[in-house]
Structure formats: structure tokens, C-alpha cells
Amino acid sequence: MADPKSEIVVTVGGKEAIYSAMMAIVNPGDEVIVPDPYWVSYVPCIELCGGHPVYLPLEESEGFRISASQVEKVITARTKMLILNSPNNPTGSVAARPEVDALADLAKQKHFLVLSDELYEKILFDGERHYSIASFADMKDLSIVVNGFSKATAMTGWRLGYLIASKSIAARVVAIHSHLVTSACTFAQRAAALALRDERTDKSIKEMVSEYQLRRDGNERTKKNRRHIMLRA
Fold it and tell me: Are 121 and 214 in the same domain?
């Protein structure tokens, strides 16, 4: 469990949480491992801090899965952090429990931080499950969890996110965050608090994900029909 007073920082969207965490942790010359394909803002955030992105290519033929053995090959003495984005944007890949467990073991062995971007944790299909690396044994102090309300509760334009980290890291993030944006706006915070407390929220999320799945499956059927027509032609 995280202490809400000292281990959670409310931010102006998930992007500000990521950048503030980078500013608090990444020093010039530090390396940050970025699984590729990746969300567009990771690399600029790293470079703005003077860090160096180390790209870790993931293969479509393997479902864009990330493995500890892949990560270990690119670790150096300068490695400060691994970015773990599961469910992943843009690939949709979801890290399975054994994969997250192996990454946690590697982080403890090599002593690097994991920035776990969990914005899509509620948007899952085909029986997939989300596992937060921060919940694994002895990973609390080595994890920085980033989440927000833009995806699951459709509050994209309201710009509200949060970060969970150890007290020491959270304190450094607060020092940067307070001068960067001062604070997130109050109406968005009130809306998020209501969404977290309201028992109807989970039902609404499930309905939204079901609609997304219908659209996804419909698109797949459309693609198959098009391929079938092309083959017949």
C-alpha cells in the first residue's frame, strides 16, 4: 500500500508525471531502456533530462513481448531506468505475470528503477490481466508507477494523472512538480475522486471496454472481408 501523504503525487496528466519522474531521477549521461515501439513522449522526456535512450526492439512475430533476457543484454553501468508500458501503447501487448516477475528479479539484481506506465490497465481484451511490477516482492522502492484518468474514465482533456513512488523519490518529484505546474486543477481532482468512490465506475468501464472490443472485432472482420474480396478478384 502507498502512503497517500508521502508516496502519491497528483499531476497534470500522465505525461507530466512521467516528465517529473525523469527530471527527479535521470542525470546527464544516464541510460534509460525504452522498448520499441514506444509512446511518442518517452524519448523526448529522457533527452530533456540529458539522458540517453537505449532502444530495445520488440518483434511483431513474438507479439511485441518484452523479456528479462532481452533487457539484460542492453544493461550497462550507466543504466538508470527501464520503461515498462503494459498494456502497451501503441502495440496493445500485455506483459504476462512470468514476464513481469522476471523483470522484477532483474531490476533487483542489477538495481535499476522501473517506470511502469499503467494508463491502460483497465482496457484489456481476450482474458488478459494487468500486473503492476510495484506489487511484486521488494519492488516498491525500485518502481515508479504512473497512471491517470484519461483512458479508463475518459477524462483525457481534463489532464489529471498521478505517480506512486517511494517517499524519497516522491519528495523529489514534488519539488519539481510544484515549480513546473504548481498543481492540477481542482475540478478535475473532484471528478476523479468521485469516479474512484462511485460504485458505478467499474460497470461503466466494463461497458466501454466491451464497446471497444466490438469495434476491434468489427474492424478485424472488415479487414478479413477485404482480403477475401481481393483474393477473389
Answer: no
Contact partners, residue 28, CB within 8 Å, separation at least 6: 49, 50, 51
Contacts of range 135-142, beta carbons closer than 8 Å, 24 or more positions apart: 136/100, 136/101, 136/104, 137/104, 138/108, 139/104, 139/107, 139/108, 139/114, 140/166, 141/166, 142/107, 142/108, 142/111, 142/112, 142/113, 142/114
Q: What is the pLDDT of residues 125-170, one digit of tens each?
A: 999 999 999 999 999 999 999 999 999 999 999 999 999 999 999 9
What is the pTM assigned to this prediction? 0.91
The string of DSSP codes covering 65-85 is ---HHHHHHH--TTEEEEEEE
- Same domain, yes or no, for 155 and 173? yes
Q: Do 23 and 52 belong together in one domain?
A: yes
Q: Does 1 fall in a domain?
A: no
Q: Residue 222 belongs to what domain range?
A: 199-233
The tally of domains found in the chain comes to 2
Q: Which residues does 74 contact at the CB level (< 8 Å), separation at least 6?
A: 33, 54, 56
SS3 label, residue 6: coil
Task: Tell me if 212 is assigned to some domain.
Answer: yes
